[in-house]
């Protein structure tokens, strides 16, 4: 992952209002500098502290500094509140804005009343509360952004798969480099060895091995020749090809994947976190209590009594502790996760763990190692020994990086077999690899090829090997089946533990694979999964995520570009750290070590984090829930009104408590 300068990042400050990271950091430091003299010269809730310095004219200095703080430091919260109110969903930004707005207006009134009209008794101002609230909230949002802001953009990562220029060939055979944005459907492009394919295109001349991990999610070199389609973003091998552009811009495959990711991320970003919900409830509670208190006290007393009481209710509702309750837990949680190989890119994912119903996971690379080993080698032809069958298959697969090809090449090398690369090789998607060796055309094919061409083979033998969890490849020459290789992938040691843990937590595990049903069933049975989706095409995965989401919340674990839309679409997306950059950028959580046991750690940490968040929110909001009615005078009939000084002390204590509670968060170690 790239190391990005956090000072250039943005954050959603409230239902769509974007706050620039650099601006937020600068606002915090400037606001802190302005707050120091305000705290030194302004009483807290009417109480003059021992360290404070009040002198003739200090009220006016405080008023000037408080005004700058109000308009400068409070600006992002006012913009966020505007967005929340436009969506008719008041939350944290609205609560903050109400508190500082009332505090500022009443404080200006107090300064004027005390210093120009010399009213008695003097009117208390709330510049101390206003300044500290703004600084604490800016600090909370800075902490939150600094710890959980996305390390990059999935869409930007996809864009990097495409080159900047394309080599366009005209009718006379002349080549000109143009900007990729100027490339049009129907133009002819030259794609040189090692270059990225600039757009979806049809090969007109030449042949080459093309790495299509973009499609498969795994490293796979596919032989491409005249008449074959190449996808923009895939990587050309050693050959040079000329191709006609069939799709670019919005019509290209890559653009369609980018659109899926954007749509999925946009739909998921609308979720509302717990802190905002609590702040929304407090906003309504404070608004109702303040207005009711004003009306009641205006009725039983007069304006001189009713106004200070109402203002006290609104100011006491200021969420000092609430503003730090979640960011401090997030900061601690993110640090613990990073120390244990978990990178958290979306904090909301942590809050949704308790609601997860299904865990969809890819087979290869997630539950298995993705490293195939030859378990069975069989020759059906007396003219070819088993070693000769393996040698011919290795000749066809030489130069390919597909996991199955790698297994064959490794087995051949282990036997010290000599072989040379076949000529005139070609790849038939989903069927096999073909080429010429010593004048004879051979093919390494799947069982689908045998069925389609009605070639005879031992069905019982296939079922037996497949039931063992093997992927089976056949060697054919014309209509003759010469032999087979059965390869098994190794199951990761922690895979069964992960599945058992998911079931224990009430989460249904689901395995996704493009492999045959028999192999899928074998692997699933080995790790304890009952729900298996096999023979899947890459585009099927996101559809399945949406299908399962109809019945509950979905966690998705995968790698590869083809997994990116599914990772973004799922309620929680977990990317294998060894996967592609695009998959990683689309995920909420990244497993650095690619160990399934890390999923268990994440789930445990997420639950502990949510518990700490809830505790802190109760501490932060609990102060408000008790102080608001007391400040409104609910116990006035028995002679008790909340002393502002007591309210200030309790407010400070609640802030300290949430900080200490956040630091006690720990992560469990999976044995």
Give the strand order, joined by hyphens, for the main sheet.
12-24-23-22-13-20-21
Pairing-aware structural class of the strands and helices?
alpha+beta
**What Rg do the Cα atoms give?**
33 Å
* Major sheet size, sense and barrel closure: 7 strands, mixed
Q: Tell me which oligomeric state these chains represent.
A: single chain
Kindly estimate the percentage of residues that lie in beta strands according to DSSP: 15-25%
Task: Give the overall shape.
Answer: elongated
How many strand segments? 24
Mean pLDDT: 82
Distance between the termini: 28 Å
Helix content range: 40-55%
How many separate helices? 23
Q: Which regions are unreliable across 5 or more consecutive residues at pLDDT < 50?
A: 1-21, 147-155, 215-219, 264-272
Membrane topology: Multi-pass membrane protein
Transmembrane segments: 28-54, 60-79, 91-113, 125-143, 278-300, 306-330, 617-640, 646-665
Organism: Levilactobacillus fuyuanensis
Pfam family, one: E1-E2_ATPase
Strand and helix map with partners:
Blueprint: E1 10-14, E2 17-20, H1 21-41, H2 58-73, H3 75-86, H4 92-115, H5 127-148, H6 154-159, E3 165-169, E4 175-179, E5 188-191, E6 200-205, E7 208-211, H7 213-216, E8 221-224, E9 229-230, E10 235-236, E11 241-247, H8 253-268, H9 274-300, H10 303-316, H11 320-339, E12 342-344, H12 347-352, E13 356-362, E14 368-379, H13 386-397, H14 403-414, E15 423-428, E16 432-437, E17 440-445, H15 447-452, H16 459-467, E18 470-477, E19 480-491, H17 495-504, E20 508-512, H18 517-527, E21 531-533, H19 540-549, E22 553-558, H20 564-569, E23 572-576, H21 581-586, E24 589-591, H22 597-632, H23 644-663
Parallel strand pairs: 13-20, 13-22, 20-21, 22-23, 23-24
Antiparallel strand pairs: 1-2, 3-4, 3-5, 5-11, 6-9, 6-11, 7-8, 7-10, 12-24, 14-19, 15-16, 16-17, 17-18, 18-19
Helix pairs in contact: 1-2, 1-5, 2-4, 2-5, 3-4, 4-5, 4-9, 4-10, 5-11, 9-10, 9-22, 10-22, 11-22, 11-23, 13-14, 22-23
Catalytic activity: Cu(+)(in) + ATP + H2O = Cu(+)(out) + ADP + phosphate + H(+)
Domain P-type ATPase A: 161-261
Keywords: ATP-binding, Cell membrane, Copper, Copper transport, Ion transport, Magnesium, Membrane, Metal-binding, Nucleotide-binding, Phosphoprotein, Translocase, Transmembrane, Transmembrane helix, Transport
């Amino acid at each position: 992952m790239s190391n990005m300068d956090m000072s250039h990042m943005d954050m959603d400050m409230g239902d769509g209002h974007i706050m620039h990271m650099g601006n937020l950091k600068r606002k915090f430091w400037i606001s802190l500098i302005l707050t120091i003299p305000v705290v030194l010269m302004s009483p807290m809730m009417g109480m003059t502290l021992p360290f404070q310095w009040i002198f003739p004219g200090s009220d006016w200095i405080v008023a000037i500094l408080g005004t700058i703080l109000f308009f400068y430091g409070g600006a992002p919260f006012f913009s966020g509140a505007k967005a929340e109110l436009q969506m008719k969903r008041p939350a944290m930004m609205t609560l903050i804005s109400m508190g500082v707005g009332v505090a500022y207006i009443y404080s200006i009134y107090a300064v004027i009343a005390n210093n120009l009209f010399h009213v008695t008794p003097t009117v208390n101002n709330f510049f101390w509360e206003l300044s500290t609230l703004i600084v604490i909230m800016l600090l909370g949002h800075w902490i939150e952004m600094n710890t959980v802001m996305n390390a990059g953009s999935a869409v930007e990562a996809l864009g990097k798969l495409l080159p900047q220029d394309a080599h366009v060939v005209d009718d006379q055979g002349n080549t000109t480099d143009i900007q990729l944005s100027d490339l049009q459907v129907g133009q002819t492009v030259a794609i040189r060895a090692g270059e990225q394919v600039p757009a979806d295109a049809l090969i007109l001349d030449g042949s080459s091995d093309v790495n299509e991990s973009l499609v498969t999610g795994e490293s796979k070199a596919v032989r491409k020749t005249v008449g074959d389609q190449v996808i923009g973003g895939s990587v050309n091998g050693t050959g040079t090809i000329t191709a006609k552009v069939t799709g670019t811009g919005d019509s290209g495959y890559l653009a369609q994947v980018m659109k899926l990711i954007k749509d999925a991320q946009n739909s998921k970003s609308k979720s509302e976190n717990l802190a905002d919900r609590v702040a929304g409830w407090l906003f309504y509670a404070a608004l109702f209590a303040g207005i009711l208190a004003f009306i009641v006290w205006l009725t039983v007393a007069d304006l001189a009594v009713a106004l200070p009481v109402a203002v006290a209710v609104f100011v006491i509702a200021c969420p000092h502790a609430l503003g730090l309750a979640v960011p401090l837990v997030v900061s601690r949680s993110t640090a613990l996760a990073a120390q244990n190989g978990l990178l958290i890119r979306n904090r909301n994912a942590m809050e949704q763990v308790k609601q997860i119903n299904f865990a969809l996971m890819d087979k290869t690379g997630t539950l298995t190692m993705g490293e195939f080993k030859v378990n069975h080698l069989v020759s059906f032809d007396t003219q070819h020994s088993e070693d000769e069958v393996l040698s011919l298959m290795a000749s066809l697969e030489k130069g390919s990086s597909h996991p199955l090809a790698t297994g064959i090449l490794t087995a051949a090398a282990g036997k010290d077999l000599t072989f040379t690369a076949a000529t005139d090789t070609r790849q038939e998607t989903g069927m096999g690899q073909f080429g010429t060796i010593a004048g004879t055309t051979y093919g390494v094919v799947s069982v689908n090829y045998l069925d389609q061409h009605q070639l005879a083979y031992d069905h019982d033998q296939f079922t037996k090997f497949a039931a063992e969890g093997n992927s089976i490849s056949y060697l054919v020459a014309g209509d003759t089946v010469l032999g087979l290789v059965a390869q098994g992938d190794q199951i990761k040691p922690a895979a069964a533990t992960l599945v058992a843990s998911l079931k224990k937590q009430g989460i249904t595990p689901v395995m996704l694979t493009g492999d045959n049903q028999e192999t899928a069933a074998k692997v699933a049975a080995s790790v304890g999964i009952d729900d298996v989706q096999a023979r899947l095409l890459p585009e099927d995965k996101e559809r399945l995520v949406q299908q399962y989401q109809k019945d509950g919340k979905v966690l998705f674990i995968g790698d590869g570009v083809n997994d990116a839309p599914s990772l973004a679409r799922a309620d929680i997306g977990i990317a294998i750290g060894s996967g592609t950059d695009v998959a990683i950028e689309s995920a909420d959580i990244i497993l650095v070590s690619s160990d399934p046991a890390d999923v268990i750690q994440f789930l445990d940490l997420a639950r502990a984090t949510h518990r700490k968040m809830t505790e802190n929110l109760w501490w932060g909001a609990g102060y408000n829930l008790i102080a608001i009615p007391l400040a409104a005078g609910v116990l006035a009939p028995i002679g008790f009104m909340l002393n502002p000084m007591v309210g200030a002390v309790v407010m400070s204590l609640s802030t300290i408590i949430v900080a200490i509670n956040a630091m006690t968060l720990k992560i469990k170690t999976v044995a």
